[in-house]
Amino acid sequence: MLLKNRPLALFLAVLAGFTILAPRTVFAWQDQNAEETLDDENRSFSAEAGHGSVTFGLNYYRNSDHGDGNPFLDEALTDFEPVIIFDYNVTDRFSINGDISYDYVSSASLERLENFGDQTGATGDYYYGAGLGGTYKLEPDLRIGGNLSFSTEYDYDSIGLGGFVARDLNNKNTTLKLNLNAFQDTIDIIRWNGEQQEGTDDRTTLSLTGNWYQIITPSTHSELGISATHQSGFLETAYNFAVLEHPQHPGPDHDHPPSFRELGGPSWEERWLEDRSLQDDRLAIDDIFGAIYPEVLPDTRTRGSIFGRVRTSLSPATAIEIGGRLYADSWGISSVTIEPRLYQWLIEDRLSARLRYRFYAQTAADDYSAHFYMEDPPEFMTQDSDLGDFTANGAGIKFSWYFSETLRFDVSSDYILRSDGIDQVLGAAGFNWSF
Amino acid sequence: MFLFVAVLGSFGCRGVEYHQKQRFSNAIMLFDPDGSEIHFHQKTYYSREGSAGGIGASAGGGCGCY
């Protein structure tokens, strides 16, 4: 109950206790060699040719559905994701990096697969993703790079192309970085009932991001970023649907279930007659009469965000961070994210822990509603709960065990409470090997 | 907070000398040392929040729908 009502208070209490109980021996920490670098990107670069690192992670995600969100859909879901990430210094000036990931997604709505073999999207899906990039050091303080990425899903293929330029300034106290990324997606339009008559469509995304890294004091550094993104094309989720209800129908009467329901599009009547199991699966609320239509959303979307974080070392064994993000887009969604973190060495040079709390709140898209009605059908409509308004409070802990200077093992867990009932559990384990 | 970061950042122009940067090599001061976690969290947020940027480092790229 405390976690549900006072997540921030609970987090602060745990954070305080964590700090007080931390072994005092860790404060004997000795500063490491200053020639080590500040982040992964620089670490790769500061190393000599022939060096690099490999990271392997196994991630687990699960969300429940307590009945809010989309009232017509069970959104419970589980996802397993192994991921491999590597970087390698080909020469002292040129390094490459890449990642490969796979997702196995299963959901409560998998049962629909028994009736609709072509059911798509979130109902028992896969995701393969891979990326390859390179960074070249033009000058001691100037780097350029590019990357190519590809992903494929049951109904999605995506190709991405990106590039960046980064400049160190002010005796490397400042780094400015500009990223430009483009993605071209191809979507097989497979509807919730397996229909594929609409063929394929495209989505194009262009994103420009500027980052400013700044060392503020000998114990504090920060990042500040701003991002603008424009998307065009097919922006709906193909298998999403919206229900247009008949509000004039008499109210709930559980003793006398409705004798019929109408389903989907211009040919709803025929479809209903041919496939009654669809209606039984989809309209889980017995007292609603309505028809199912595909989700319809605008074909352009412009998104902007500003984000930043500051981390300071309170002692050689303790660091704290505060991060945040503000976001707004042309669909009417705006959001705020606040994320404080505590980093603590539990055993000097061997075991570290991280506590984090994340508050997220977003407003609903203009075209989102939990209910739409036949008498006033909108031009655009979505019942995707992720486009609705909600708040989320998440807390998590992570432990990192350093077996040696080149081998680290990580394990973490997060729990997220969402106001619309889509609570989430995240778990991850993995290792990083530098060579 | 962003104004706070910007104001603090201006202090950085005074310059922190190289020999004063030892603490930034401390593992608990590294920004984003775990690429797998970044990938995972971004994908989760992308799939479950209307305002997330996308899979990977920036917006776009596939459905990733949950």
> Which fold name is given in CATH as the topology of chain A?
Porin
The portion of residues forming beta strands of chain A comes to over 45%
Mean pLDDT of chain B: 72
CATH architecture of chain A: Beta Barrel
Molecular shape of chain B:
elongated
Supply the number of helical segments of chain B: 2
List keywords for this structure.
heterodimer; A: 435 residues; mainly beta; Porin; 53% strand; B: 66 residues; mainly alpha; 2 helices
Characterization of the model:
The complex is a heterodimer of chains A (435) and B (66). Chain A is mainly beta. Chain A has one domain: Porin, CATH 2.40.160. Helices cover 9% and strands 53% of the residues of chain A. Chain A is built from five helices and 19 strands. Chain A has helices at 2-5, 7-21, 40-46, 268-274, 276-282; strands at residues 52-63, 77-89, 94-107, 125-139, 142-153, 156-169, 174-188, 200-217, 220-233, 241-245, 290-294, 300-315, 318-329, 334-347, 351-362, 372-373, 390-402, 407-418, 424-434. In chain A, strands 1-2-3-4-5-6-7-8-9-12-13-14-15-17-18-19 form a 16-stranded antiparallel barrel. A three-stranded mixed β-sheet of chain A has the order 11-10-16, with no helix packed on it. The longest helix of chain A has 15 residues, at 7-21. Chain A is globular, with a radius of gyration of 25 Å. Chain A starts with a helix and ends with a strand. By secondary structure, chain B is mostly helical. Chain B has two helices and no strands. The longest helix of chain B is centred in the middle third of the chain and has 14 residues, at 35-48. The two termini of chain B are 32 Å apart. The relative contact order of chain B is 0.09. At the A-B interface, β1, β2, β3, β4 and β5 of A face α1 and α2 of B.
